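User: Assemble these into one structure.

Assistant: Restating your components, then the assembled model:
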Amino acid sequence: MQNKEEHFNRLVKENHQRIQSICKYYASVAEDQKDIYQEVLVNIWKSLETFRGEAQESTWIYRIALNTALGFAGKEFRRMKFNLDPGEKGIQNILVEDDGVDIKLREDQLNALQVHLNQLTVIEKAIMSLVLENLSSKEISEIIGITEPNVRVKIHRIKESLREQMKGGSYGN
Amino acid sequence: MVTNNSIKNNEQYSGGLFQNGNSINLESLINRVKDEDARNLRISRSFQWTYIAIIFLYVALILLESKEEFYSTRTISNVFFILSFIAFSLIFRNGYKEFKSIDYSLPVIEMLRKTAKRYSLSAKKYLTLSIPIILMDVGLTISVYERLQPIDPLSRVLVIQVVYIPVMVISALIGLLVWRKKQKPLRDNALKLIEELEGE
């Protein structure tokens, strides 16, 4: 059986990108990202003994990262800013139409999208951060703790709202 | 012990995230958490030992006095004080255990429910806290009762309550103000997020 430290090191090594992404969504300043990252690592360390393998490791990590980020945001609730990376692979997940039509974004539209994302509620932002991570509705429901249909409804509504707000800009094909 | 190789390996990953010498040192981070855990444990233990020491002191007093008269009012009041300290000690221990058991790996909604519960002022918490307070009141009343001999029995009890109850009420009000400033906003935020999550 591997000891706590080996387990911790392996988890950090294998899930570094996931933790990093969540930190980046919730903080725009490098120093704040580092603070959240450290807090996530501390909470992983503290929660290691409760990991029984019932959930996938990635789900477990996302839960800790998200709970930490929300807690972190809770301290400065009003200042929380969703930070979108221009190179983000999951951006298209937000604006793909339900019929599968892909929407290409220009740089100015990306900025507009970020503005609209920041107008979402805390929970909506949390859900969209997981959508950006290419997670399925099932995985998101396991992380958030609500039913899969509820997740799908929420994602659909958020996307609708974002598309509606973006209609002003000519981002269509 | 944290092994140097594993730390170096992990620093490569964390170093990638935080550039310009801004990387996280996992060794110091883990050591900091361990130090914090050790400090919390020390504080918790010192509180518990303080309570145990007070309890032993009172038990010793009872035993010493029992040589003269076991059922003296002083002995009975000391028993109530001991019971009150035991109850306070258990409440403190449970509070510490609850704080220590915060599990960040729970689904977000469960985490929020626990947060809301932890920071709420429930009737159960009031009732639990009222047990040692009442025990202490009984102990104090028995202890002071005989010293107020010239006054009639009912008035004696009332005089003690007139002093004790306001002290407890003021303490409760201070606790309430601290709760409103520090814990209520956390509870309110958690409830708001739960409501949003549960809504269709």
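Confidence is low (pLDDT under 50) at residues 1-17 of chain B.
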